[in-house]
Amino acid sequence: MAPKIVVEHVHKSFGALHVLRGIDLQVGEGEVVCIIGPSGSGKSTLLRCLNQLETVSDGRVTVDGVAMSDAATDLNAARRNIGMVFQGFNLFQHLTVRRNLTLAPVDLKVMSRAEADAQAGRLLARVGLADKVDAYPRQLSGGQQQRVAIARALAMRPDVMLFDEPTSALDPEMVGEVLAVIRDLAEAGMTMVIVTHEMAFARDVAHRVVFMADGCIVEQGTPAAVFTSPREPRTRDFLRRVSG
Known about the structure:
Elements: E1 5-14, E2 17-27, E3 32-36, H1 43-50, E4 58-63, E5 66-67, H2 75-79, E6 82-85, H3 97-107, H4 113-126, H5 142-154, E7 160-164, H6 172-187, E8 191-195, H7 199-205, E9 208-213, E10 216-221, H8 223-228, H9 233-243
Parallel strand pairs: 3-8, 3-9, 6-7, 7-8
Antiparallel strand pairs: 1-2, 1-4, 4-5, 9-10
């Protein structure tokens, strides 16, 4: 079976700043890959290159057989199959939770209003927020807003989910409720790439852990291999600092 995501020798520069330096990565269908590493290592930039929120300077990105980095690709169509959840919740504050979930499917004519409303109810139940369907984001806690953001991403029925530090803006007591939703998605077989600083979560949920530093993939392997017996000194130093 062909990989779901293929990244081939990807470089990304912002002016003179060379952020990604020849990244090669494949993600299989149903695989959960957690990307870890120090701040400034290029983790979030790599994630944003997958759906071309950042265009690559060189190299190639393919998702579900679609060449995302090809100038001829209809990115709006391709992105419908890729859900993304950011550090901030990015919800429409003036719309109810229901409307946040139904806006894109209805406006893009993916489904009727009735179908979208029914789906919104199912998705909110899935993330434990069935009773918040008519609430506004300002009435929700940070953890609840992030769970709504996940449900909204799922509303387009994506094949791939990307998470960029989904718990970094949350108070510690709210982290667990968001990670539980992501864990449920993993158990359901969703293909996911997750940039995270939650090492225990990465160890628990990932099929593979990728350690990045200085714009490069330094090491990757199973959680047991990376966290218990890292091969590279840079990986060992990072894990020693974050665990200390």
